From TrEMBL:
Its main location: cytoplasm. GO terms for biological process: L-leucine biosynthetic process. Keywords: Amino-acid biosynthesis, Branched-chain amino acid biosynthesis, Cytoplasm, Leucine biosynthesis, Magnesium, Metal-binding, Transferase. NCBIfam families: PRK03739.1. Residues 28-306 form the Pyruvate carboxyltransferase domain. GO terms for cellular component: cytoplasm. This is 2-isopropylmalate synthase.
């Protein structure tokens, strides 16, 4: 690997950096750039209808600023902007944003697209990075700065003209020094200051300075240094909202945005699920859910991923990875036995009114529309806990520990045979069959239980014989009766029972479930039964075990 070919990005020296001491305490102002940056990165860009579909979803999720496109770049982008305005599809509290290069004819066309809009952010950019200045534009720092100033002037002048035509229109100005993270930070400050000198924003009427990591080229801590340096050196900082726009080339776009917020940024631009150029834009879902999982209101409604993910997948034609943070199909699923065991124990202890404390589940899957069915999946790696959890959660069966151990290899063998995950239904069927719960036999049509002082007596019709015995409690009396009839010595090692709300598949009227572990002439035997009442369930469980 030819690593010597590359050099580290130059970032400012900031020994007194403050951002590491800060904490995230509130959501930033969110800006969705799905319809622009996200769309720009698609092999098949969205049609107007597809854009409209995503627009409605973004509004529903609570975005208050949405970059709707680059109207001067294509007819679809222009038409979509017009459609939103002409059909009055922009709610009062939502502001559209449009992107444009610092070129006059494009800026003019952009305002044509915006005619009649109530409020819009006009986002102008030119690139400021070293490589772009030297190798693409072949321009000096002064020339690049002049391009930014000129662009800012056109944006301001055409806004005035547009307002004269349509006095209802309000414009907010935004400038991006494109490739900010690969620009000398002091120079980025200089360019942005020049832009502000044209726009003359005030704290009451601020402009927006958007700092893009157009290509992510350094680690999040050094990007945070760049942002903190920029903010600390920007004259008239109070008159600018600082916005961050990170891309994900190093896989750290979310981390970089988080640290940039610590460094003082106010606003974040990104896309749902991180769609965007190359490795994508900063994923708003991940950042918002990161905040949520620490008890911070994300100020976006992400609670219905099935709905909004379907729209995103449809319009982008990109399938969400099954392990995508927070919303991937299996991100709340445990396959390993020890994880399943820990989750089961925590879920059983978790109270509705206390903070979430469940091992391996950073949030309650129900908050993002996932039910617990998806949480534990039984496969060949699952231990006893997975099967027990499913049987309890789905079928109300509370297996004693010894039964969990006894059933685990049955579940494992089934998983190996089927190759993959066992459905809950198949697992339950295997359980019923393995413990003969679907069998009608033995039949105990008639029994009497009585008391004789401390002892209980039992008389029961069983397979055309009469069994009779006595003991301390019904269980012992039945074992005694069995011993009297067969000569086998029976000991009850453990017994458990519970009520059932409804009997699944077997014995429609069954209301009780009993589990017994017996020692019969030194051999362990297990008996399980469902019946209408607990006594019948107990007697049947013992007789099944003896059989
Ligand atoms: O990534 C980028 O730099 C952009 C700008 C145009 C803001 O998308
Ligand atoms: Zn971008």
């Amino acid at each position: 690997m030819k690593f010597a070919k590359y050099q580290p990005t130059v970032t400012p020296d900031l020994p007194d950096r403050q951002w590491p001491n800060q904490r995230l305490v509130k959501a930033p102002l969110w800006v969705s750039v799905d319809l622009r940056d996200g769309n720009q990165a698609l092999a098949n860009p969205m049609t107007v209808e597809q854009k409209l579909k995503l627009w409605h979803e973004l509004v529903k999720m609570g975005f208050k600023t949405i970059e709707v496109g680059f109207p001067s770049a294509s007819q679809v982008e222009f038409d979509f902007t017009r459609r939103l305005i002409e059909e009055n599809l922009i709610p009062e509290d939502v502001t559209i944003q449009v992107l444009v290069q610092a070129r006059e004819h494009l800026i003019k066309r952009t305002y044509e697209a915006l005619q009649g809009v109530k409020q819009a952010v006009v986002h102008v950019y030119n690139t400021t990075s070293i490589v772009q200045r030297e190798r693409v534009f072949e321009k000096s720092k002064a020339e690049i700065k002049a391009m930014a100033e000129q662009g800012a002037l056109w944006v301001k002048n055409y806004a005035q003209a547009a307002q004269q035509q349509s006095p209802v229109s309000q414009f907010i100005f935004q400038y991006s020094p494109e490739s900010f993270s690969q620009t000398e930070t002091a120079y980025a400050v200089e360019v942005c200051e020049a832009v502000m000198d044209v726009w003359l924003p005030t704290p009451e009427n601020p402009c927006i300075l958007n700092l893009p990591a157009t290509v992510e080229s350094t680690s999040p801590n050094r990007f945070a240094d760049q942002v903190e340096y920029f903010i600390r050196h920007l004259p008239n900082r109070a008159s600018a909202l600082i916005s961050i726009h990170t891309h994900n080339d190093r896989g750290c776009a979310v981390a970089a945005a988080e640290l940039a917020l610590l460094a003082g940024a106010d606003r974040i631009e990104g896309t749902l699920l991180g769609n965007g150029e190359r490795t994508g834009n900063m994923d708003i879902v991940t950042l918002a859910m990161n905040l949520y999982s620490e008890g911070i209101d994300p100020e976006l409604n992400l609670s219905n991923p099935d709905e909004w993910m379907a729209v995103v997948e449809e319009v982008t034609q990109i399938k969400t990875h099954m392990r995508h943070p927070w919303v991937g199909e299996v991100v709340y699923t445990a396959y390993s036995g020890s994880h399943q065991d820990a989750i089961r124990k925590c879920l059983l202890k978790q109270q509705a009114d206390e903070p979430w404390q469940v091992a391996y589940l950073p949030i309650d899957p129900k908050d993002v529309g996932r039910d617990y069915e998806a949480v534990i999946r039984v496969n060949s790696q699952s231990g006893k806990a997975g099967a027990a959890f499913v049987l309890e959660q789905e079928y109300g069966l509370k297996l004693p520990k010894w039964l969990q151990i006894d059933f685990a290899p049955v579940a494992q063998a089934l998983a190996e045979k089927q190759g993959g995950v066992i459905s809950h239904k198949n697992l339950y069927q295997a359980f019923l069959i393995h413990y003969a719960l679907t069998e009608k036999k033995p039949n105990i049509s008639n029994y009497q239980i009585g008391k004789a002082g401390e002892m209980e007596t039992i008389r029961l019709d069983y397979e055309q014989q009469i069994l009779e015995g006595r003991g301390k409690g019904t269980l012992c009396a039945l074992c005694d009766a069995w011993q009297n009839s067969t000569g086998q010595v029976v000991d009850v090692l453990d017994y458990a029972e519970h009520a059932m709300h409804e009997a699944m598949d077997v014995g429609k009227n069954a209301r009780a479930m009993a589990y017994v572990l017996l020692d019969v002439d030194g051999q362990k035997k297990i008996g399980l039964a469902m019946a209408e009442d607990t006594v019948s369930a107990m007697l049947l469980a013992v007789l099944k075990g003896l059989n």
